[in-house]
Amino acid sequence: MIDLHCHVLAGIDDGPRTIEESVELARAAARAGMTTLVATPHVNRRYPNDAGTIAARAAELGERLAAEGVQLEIRAGAEISLGVAVELDPGELRRLSLGGGPWLLVEPPFASVASGLDILLLDLQRRGHRIVLAHPERCPAFQRDPRMLRSLVRDGLLTSITAGSLVGRFGGEVRRFAINLVAEGLVHNVASDAHDGGARAPGIAGELAHSGVAALADWWTDAVPSAILAGEEIPSRPPVELPAATATRRRWSRLLRAG
């Protein structure tokens, strides 16, 4: 499995504080079946990280893991807040891409009303950046207006939900919305968004199995992230019928009518 969104670098954001904690998280990821972690520290107002620092920390961690015999590849990336992404120098923004490819992992705001959210995202795309939305199921603006998210996906944006969202780790409303997104085919990747080896551990497979959607695990955690990192065409979702599809489609329809 490839974990496309993981806060594994030490002392750089709200993830591990020390390199030892980073190694602990990486070991947990390897035990959970990960073969590649994309290190995606926050790049926002609170954590104004830059591409050079992230690359150096990722290389340092990769060397440490190799020395300790942990079979796990570390790739550099970033989770960039939308507000910062639209202001960054174009060259720096490209250097913050996922694994050096053409895709950016962009974090939407957590505000319940985000006027112009779709306009800003589409403007980034028009400037040549391909966008993966980080945990859109936890964005109140998308919860209030799911049609906006559907429209963005139609326009070429991808979504990466957090595995824990599917099992209620962020509350019932987020879980319901995440399941609706899965049922509507609006999820392209499932990542851990891990921050440590404990409460925010790097789990994906267990959460997918518990949610009854493991049939899409290979597409979400291997085929799509491999294409993202390589800059290749995103493979089509396999024709898999999920157990909860009928019920979740009904709930999605009610959300659309209410919106």
What would the keywords be for this entry?
single chain; 259 residues; alpha/beta; TIM Barrel; 6-stranded parallel sheet; 3-stranded parallel sheet; 11 helices; 14% strand; globular
CATH superfamily: Metal-dependent hydrolases
The helix-strand sequence is: EHEEHEEHHEHEHHEHEHHH
Global structural class: alpha/beta
Q: What's the alpha carbon Rg, rounded to whole Å?
A: 17 Å
Quantity of strands, as a count: 9
* Mean pLDDT across residues: 93
Question: What overall geometry do the principal axes of the alpha carbons give?
Answer: globular
Distance between the termini: 36 Å
Under the CATH scheme, which class? Alpha Beta
CATH topology: TIM Barrel
Largest sheet: 6 strands, parallel
Short description:
This protein is of the alpha/beta class. It contains eleven helices and nine strands.
Overview of the molecule:
The chain is α/β, with parallel strands linked by helices. It has a single domain (2-258), classed as TIM Barrel, CATH 3.20.20. It contains 11 helices and 9 strands. The strands form 2 sheets. Strands 3-5-6-7-8-9 form a 6-stranded parallel β-sheet. The chain is globular, with a radius of gyration of 17 Å. The termini are far apart.
